[in-house]
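Sample pair:
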Amino acid sequence: MLVKNSTLQIHATIGPVSKDKDTLRDLINAGVTVFRLNMSYVEKGEMAGLVNSIRGVSSSVKTGADIKGRKLRIGPIEAPIMLSAGDRLKLIPSAGEFMGGSSGVCVYYPQLAQFITAGSRILLDDGAITLTVSEITDNEIICTAIKGGRLTSRAGVNLPGIALGLPPLTDKDRADLSEIAASGIDMLYFSYVETKEDIMALREAAKAVGLDVPIVSKVETVYAVKNITEICRHSDAICIARGDLGVEVPHAALPFVVRDITTAAKSAGKPVLLAGEVMYSLVSREVPFRAELTDVVVAVESGVDGFILSDETAIGINPVTAINYITSIAKEVYERTGALS
């Protein structure tokens, strides 16, 4: 299921452009070994149908569900919001989701305002958008855009250096686990793991609903990096999630942190998967940037067991192209160096 030191694993995230049966079949033929379902985007009651569609195409390809954990996101919005430097945006902490728009968007964490002050920095969409907090009222966090961009539904929210005191599992995660268990999923991806206790908590919650599957711990915070040895020991596999990790770690240090996590996972005998902008240019292009080709080669040569693609296969203009590039590069590495066994 999660194979150590074997052929390259390619985990493809399912999204609007890839959940039809023809595309699923093409992705499998191109080399996908696991389909990832991100529970932040799977609607209630939709899970079983998605898994059944995959099973209808192939009984051998694996499926995994990504548990949100401590990951903060904005809620749904009516249409993408274009923010420019100097624009105001209201973040509304909420115990539940509601449709947002240019007047304000919700953040699914009602206590958020307790942990920030005027001047705090908030990053959206893996740091693509930077906000600074201008004012905090009883139920609104009024922000000013320092670096603008295109804000879409359920974009990630990061507050570097601020400890939010979030539990490893939310009420939504626990509800999702019941639906995941009923769908017959093969593995769990666990976002925002920070300690071995987090992993133990997920195993306990999963077993409570009859789910006993491997856990892929996603390393995406400085806290996880500090605890990487124990996280590797208690996980079935490690995902280096460079998107969020790159928000918390200085950019110049990120490649070295990735290398250290890879070494820790290999030392523990655990498969390690690389995620985060692997072929990100293919969201909107047919041909990847040359640096992306080199990135994949370096990763395979360093011992990475596979890749997790997100937007490339969920919303990209041609998800199969992204898989074809990954497999062709891996084949070239194998033929030249025997890096894959």
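The mean pLDDT is 92.
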